[in-house]
């Protein structure tokens, strides 16, 4: 039996450029999809946030370029909390997975500090 599960992830971006945002978004999505054995057809939606210092491109644009064209995507700006990690893209993927499958949240590069348990 399959149920809806949420998978979280984040990655830092070295600079505020469209190329860097696209590269890091694609990397984050590819690794989450591989680690969780995700199938595009079972993904319900993907929600991205980016810190205010990343505004050169929408992470959803990178997802579309990576072939996720039939999935509802949404981008929003992350809260600007003083002292928080900068240049971060976060993602929440809602997908159908087998009920007994444990999800693997992925925090890459500098974003590892956000979830040291992952």
Automatic annotation (TrEMBL):
For this UniProt entry, the molecular function terms from Gene Ontology, in alphabetical order, are: chorismate mutase activity
Q: State where prephenate binds.
A: 8, 90, 107
Q: Which UniProt keywords apply?
A: Amino-acid biosynthesis, Aromatic amino acid biosynthesis, Isomerase
User: Which reactions fall under this protein's catalytic activity?
Assistant: chorismate = prephenate
InterPro entries hit by this protein: Chorismate_mutase_AroH, RutC-like_sf
Question: What EC numbers are recorded for this enzyme?
Answer: 5.4.99.5
- Alphabetical list of Pfam families matching this protein: CM_1
CDD domains for this protein: AroH
Q: Name one GO biological process term.
A: chorismate metabolic process
NCBIfam families from the xrefs? CM_mono_aroH
Fetch the PANTHER family from UniProt. Answer: CHORISMATE MUTASE (PTHR21164), CHORISMATE MUTASE AROH (PTHR21164:SF0)
Name of the protein: chorismate mutase
């Amino acid at each position: 039996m399959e149920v809806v599960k949420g998978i979280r992830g984040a990655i830092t971006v070295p600079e505020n450029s469209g190329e860097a945002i696209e590269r890091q978004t694609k990397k984050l999505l590819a690794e989450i999809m591989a680690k969780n054995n995700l199938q595009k057809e079972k993904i319900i939606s993907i929600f991205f946030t980016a810190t205010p210092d990343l505004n050169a491109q929408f992470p959803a644009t990178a997802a579309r370029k990576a072939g996720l064209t039939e999935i509802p995507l949404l981008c929003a700006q992350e809260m600007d909390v003083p002292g928080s990690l900068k240049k971060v893209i976060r993602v929440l993927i809602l997908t159908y997975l087998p009920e007994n499958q444990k999800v693997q949240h992925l925090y890459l590069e500098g974003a590892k500090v956000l979830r040291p348990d992952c």
